Amino acid sequence: MRTRRPLAVLLAAVTAVTALVGCSSGSEESKCANKAGVIECAPDQRSAAPKITGDLLTGGSYDVSQARGQVVVLNFWGSWCAPCRAEADDLEATYQATKASGVTFLGINVQDSKDKAIAFEQGRVTYPSLFDPASRLALALDIPPNTIPATVVLDREGRIATVIRAAVTQDGLRPVIERIAAEQAASGSR
């Protein structure tokens, strides 16, 4: 009987977080094109990302504002998530292929234990990940990811350009990133 109560509390907390995430997508999302779980916002419709900062899995802290001027790819993942395992190689390959053009990646580990998250990342990806077991960073976004895995692409001004609510592949993600990087470069990086 004792093990059922903590499990019930955990399930209630996860249900509450899921409900909040689902309810928080409002007018910002409606301004953008939504095609099969991929939300793309035109430059004049993009909202600024909230403060995205936290503790890194490997120690130390990180603040996404340090990457202003770069395209930032945020990937929300968990070690318990089979699609996260499936997309890890594609994310790393896309990171390696785009980092020379002013693109940086940041993983955001959610609903996980730190030990399992660190073990999952070893040998899979070379970019850093924040540890956010309560999913606070996802909840703070105007256009929340709503699923795990999910990928959010911020433009060079730190605005939400694309939200992908599914696992990604290199063939699907790389053109999105390159398009966002090119539009900013073509406009003179405002």
Automatic annotation (TrEMBL):
Residues 1-21 form the signal peptide. It is found in: Cell envelope. It comes from the Bacteria. Residues 36-182 form the Thioredoxin domain. Keywords: Cytochrome c-type biogenesis, Disulfide bond, Redox-active center, Signal, Signal-anchor, Transmembrane. GO terms for biological process: cytochrome complex assembly. GO terms for cellular component: cell envelope. PROSITE patterns: PROKAR_LIPOPROTEIN, THIOREDOXIN_1, THIOREDOXIN_2. Its main location: other. One of its GO terms (molecular function) is oxidoreductase activity. This is Alkyl hydroperoxide reductase. It comes from Micromonospora sicca.
